[in-house]
Write a structure and sequence with these properties.
The protein has 940 residues and is of the alpha+beta class. Helix 4 crosses helix 7. The longest helix has 27 residues.
Length: 940
């Protein structure tokens, strides 16, 4: 046995196997020694070196500068707050587990945030509406295309029909986006169907935000800003189970006097892709997590307010966790911006303008010009009461009663639509008003949903012409649309390849029924007829104001309304009188207005008011999606700046332009008189003076301004048109009117640093243009600039900025008064004639300025018709004191009936400005005490 072993060993060591085994053993020994050295002896060093190889920069956002009024009153500032953030750097065994656990964790923290009075940070461009539908918030087609490209992970021109989900990616609806991101497709979030609609939406919002940081996981994603102590405590107490979730110190942008100043200052928010691409062209320090000015002065003065970001250099490990901070460059605070606006004057002007508008509404309801049924319906139509709460689990008895009645009426309305679509043969012109309203809504929905391909419709088609004329039934028209391929059948539940026209029409009818069942606008049409018929009563609607918290609950008042001691009419009139229900809430005519006050000596703006305003605190930092949606749906359109964006005919406020043109061109002089007979017979349409069948008789230019005599200015326009050739010529007349309107700056923007529409001087009909009609279209701020030029002889470039200072108080930029001298346009006696006429206007306004002492005011009224079915616009421009102007004022009340109403608001504002009456005293008269004039045919 021993010899066998020895023989084996002898053979083994002499064989080639020995050499091979020796080599293998040596290699294993070498490997073992190397592993021991790497992991045991030098493991810590190598681990440290590995971690330190991943060096990343982190931007530290600079503190944004404050905004002050002219007197140093703080308007916009930064407030220390806490934010809940997440870093998606957990370890998971699979993508499926990652989605499941992350979705669960997000749902947990979102519920905690909401249950403790917070809201999630949401800059996702899709919102969930109250009725459970989704809509885009993107306003430009370019932004929408970029968003779709990002969602589907490919260039827009590569987007295609998604067979798995059944829609065209390039034309994806908001609902399609949510469905796709919630799915288990690649790069999507695989959200379980166990989550309800709201939870699913919230998870999509947060997952999409996290996805934007997928290549920089060491950066945090904000879940919620400005959270309270309860939320902070929860996160800290559950830090061991909330993977990647923590609380960070942050700042949020806050605004004082929001309702009065929001249309000027705007608000801030997280930078969008478009904004980042644009801003980073000039400043590469911007990051895609920065907060920037989104609108107004916050946006215009972004480069001054933002400061200079700092930077922190850090080491992060292989899963994105920060391991060490190695250096830090501190940020530099932004500059402070001081405005020319006096916030106390701004506030007073807003309140007095609102009071005047409320007074007009109050008087029109009292006179019956606004039926009380319109007021009742306005509470529904402008979303003062929440229709979606009528069938909620905690709905009040009144809400339930209204909803039960509505449900029956809805079925009746749907049956009417079904009947018309199935067998209707009558044209829309022969339909009842109610049925026509139904189908107007149906066609609007088909168009908005993209089902009706309006761009492909041949408007010269004879069948289409019959539809527009009202001689074709909806049934026949929609069938014809299908035959002409004007219907997008990809949005219908049909086999696109094999469905015939009958099947497509059946699917279209089903689509219409489903769409109308949940459509808010359709529901409002039904409610309108329910209110008119008494199926929904004024008493019920008044009680809803308390049930839904629109008004503070008062047991005695509720009891008195319920038992009939207080009538719905008396109750609502009292609330309108006290402006507890505002004109903006009702959104009846009038509900909007604007006013601009300017320093004549410097051209600085002292107040620039747009009514109604909004709370920019709810749009800053993170948009309150519900509030933003309510603003978009508000029929008074508070997001619109009525001082700089609304354009209307100026009415007779334009007559100083015509006076200037006539005097400068010599077709009239200061003493020449024109006989007003009440009608102008020199042109074919023979326009009348507002006083017709009366007449003003012989007027010179000053008297014509006082009387606002249309015939005088018709004649002036006619003479300008006849000046060059001796015979009337439209083009020649417009040449002169445009020349002098341009001298007053009415062909250009004012220069103000916020969104402003370019004014438009008339291009035709010089006779009508001379009284401020034709197609003249001006903003309130352009009328302000014009009347300031009349008062001072200077055409100013407007600015809202007074000065900009750095953190040490050193001036960085100062307002520089820039103007063009137009005083040479007229002789002094000609200017005096215009100024005298404007003074006589105010002296003649006995119902407005009668008994007004302390300061002399000059001005010009204007009443302009825009829509025959709505009241006229009310305008007033003026200045004070008359002999040495210090301020000018331009006021417009849209659909405000009479110019005297705009003049009355201006009177109150001037009285406040010169301390003739206190704001409290002026407001004490309430809506019923203001000077409100009735409707009038006068276009003065």
């Amino acid at each position: 046995m021993i010899y066998d072993i020895k023989d084996f060993l002898k053979k083994f060591f002499s064989s080639r196997l020995f050499v091979l085994a020796a080599v293998i053993i040596f290699m294993f020994a070498l490997l073992a020694e190397r592993v021991f050295t790497l992991q045991i002896i030098k493991g810590a060093d190598y681990q440290k070196n590995f971690i330190m190889l991943i060096k990343k920069p982190l931007s530290i956002e600079a503190s944004r500068g404050n905004i002050y009024d002219v007197n140093g009153e703080l308007l916009a500032y930064n407030q220390l707050a806490y934010s809940v953030v997440i870093s998606d750097n957990g370890s998971y065994s699979s993508t499926k587990e990652h989605n499941r656990l992350l979705n669960k964790e997000l749902n947990e923290i979102i519920n905690v945030i909401k249950n403790n009075g917070g809201s999630i940070y949401n800059d996702f461009p899709v919102v969930l509406n109250d009725d459970g539908t989704y809509s885009f918030t993107l306003t430009s087609e370019t932004s929408k295309k970029r968003f779709l490209s990002d969602v589907f992970g490919k260039k827009y021109d590569k987007l295609e029909y998604n067979k798995a989900l059944g829609f065209d990616e390039a034309n994806a609806s908001a609902q399609n986006i949510i469905d796709f991101l919630s799915s288990d497709q690649n790069e999507c979030f695989d959200i379980s169907s166990k989550y309800d609609t709201q939870a699913t939406y919230d998870i999509v919002v947060m997952r999409y935000a996290i996805k934007q940081n997928r290549f920089t996981k060491y950066k945090t994603t904000t879940i919620a800003k400005d959270v309270n102590d309860s939320i902070v405590a929860y996160v800290n107490e559950h830090s061991d189970t909330l993977t990647g979730i923590s609380v960070e110190e942050d700042t949020i942008r806050k605004y004082n006097y929001p309702e009065y100043i929001s249309s000027l200052i705007g608000y801030t928010g997280k930078i969008s892709t478009d904004e980042y691409n644009e801003l980073s062209k000039d400043d590469d320090s911007y990051t895609q997590n920065d907060m920037v000015g989104k609108s107004g002065l916050e946006q215009y003065y972004e480069s001054y307010l933002r400061g200079k970001n700092g930077e922190k250099q850090v080491y992060v490990n292989n899963v994105g966790k920060i391991n060490e901070v190695i250096s830090q460059e501190n940020p530099v605070s932004g500059n402070d911006v001081y405005l020319s606006i006096d916030i106390k004057l701004q506030e007073a002007t807003y309140k007095l303008l609102e009071q005047e508008i409320a007074g007009i509404v109050y008087s029109k309801i009292k006179s019956g010009e606004i039926p009380i049924s319109d007021v009742y319906f306005a509470l529904i139509n402008n979303n003062v009461v929440d229709l979606t709460h009528f069938n909620a689990s905690d709905a009040s008895a009144t809400e339930q009663a209204i909803y039960n009645s509505f449900s029956g009426q809805l079925q009746n309305a749907l049956s009417t639509i079904d009947s018309e679509l199935e067998s209707g043969t009558s044209g829309t012109a022969s339909m009842s008003e109610q049925t026509l309203d139904y189908f107007t809504c149906v066609m609007s929905v088909l168009n908005d949903d993209g089902l009706l391909l309006s761009k492909q419709i041949d408007t010269s088609d004879s069948t289409y012409a019959s539809w527009k004329a009202g001689t074709l039934s909806p049934r026949d028209y929609l069938k014809y649309c299908i035959s002409k391929q004007w219907i997008d059948i990809t949005k219908l539940d049909v086999d696109q390849k094999y469905a015939d026209s009958s099947e497509i029409y059946t699917a279209l009818c089903s689509y219409i029924r489903d769409a109308m069942t949940d459509n808010k606008d359709f529901a409002k049409i039904i409610y309108k007829y329910m209110v008119n018929s008494g199926a929904v009563t004024g008493q019920q609607l008044c009680l809803l104001l308390f049930d839904q918290g629109v008004l503070d609950y008062d047991d005695a008042t509720v009891s008195n309304i319920a038992n009939g001691s207080i009538s719905p009419y008396a109750f609502l009139m009292d609330k309108i009188n006290n402006i507890e229900i505002t004109p903006a809430q009702l959104a009846l005519d009038p509900c909007t207005g604007s006013c601009v006050i300017t320093d004549v000596k410097t051209g600085q703006l002292k107040a620039l008011v747009s009514y109604p305003g909004y709370d920019n605190n709810k749009l800053a930092n993170t948009v309150d999606a519900d509030y933003y949606q309510s603003l978009r749906e508000d029929k008074s359109n508070p997001l619109w700046n009525y001082a700089t964006q609304e354009q209307t005919a100026p009415g007779s406020t334009f007559k100083m332009v015509s006076s200037t043109a006539g005097l400068a061109e010599g077709v009239i002089d200061t003493s020449s008189k024109i006989n007003c007979t009440g009608i102008f017979t020199e042109i074919s349409n023979q326009p009348k003076c507002w006083i017709y069948p009366g007449a003003h008789g012989m007027d010179n230019v000053s008297e014509a301004l006082r009387d606002s005599c249309n015939v005088f200015f018709y004649t002036t326009g006619f003479r300008l048109a006849s000046k060059d050739t001796g015979s009337y010529d439209d083009e020649n007349g417009m040449k002169y009117i445009q020349k002098y309107a341009s001298i007053y700056g009415l062909d250009q923007k004012s220069g103000v640093e916020i969104v402003e529409k370019t004014p438009s001087i008339a291009t035709q009909y010089p006779v009508m243009a001379a009284i401020g009609q034709s197609n003249n279209n001006f903003t309130t701020i352009s009328l302000s600039r014009y009347v300031t030029a009349v008062a001072s002889g200077k055409l100013y470039d407007y600015k809202l900025m007074n000065k900009i200072v750095d953190a040490d108080g050193k001036a960085v930029k100062q307002y520089d008064s820039k103007s063009t001298d137009i005083s040479g346009t007229l002789t002094q006696s000609q200017w005096d004639a215009i100024h005298q006429g404007m003074r006589m206007v105010v002296e003649d306004l006995h119902d407005v300025f009668g008994g007004f002492t302390g300061v002399e005011v000059s001005g010009k009224t204007g009443t302009a018709q825009q829509v025959e079915t709505r009241p006229n616009h009310a305008l007033f421009v003026g200045y004070a004191p008359s002999n040495d102007p210090e301020i000018t004022i331009a006021t417009r009340i849209s659909y405000g009936y009479s110019s005297h109403n705009a003049a009355a608001a201006s009177r109150s504002i001037i009285s406040y400005y010169y301390n003739l009456e206190s704001l409290d005293d002026l407001l004490a008269v309430k809506a019923e005490g203001v000077n409100s004039s009735g409707s009038s045919a006068r276009t003065d």
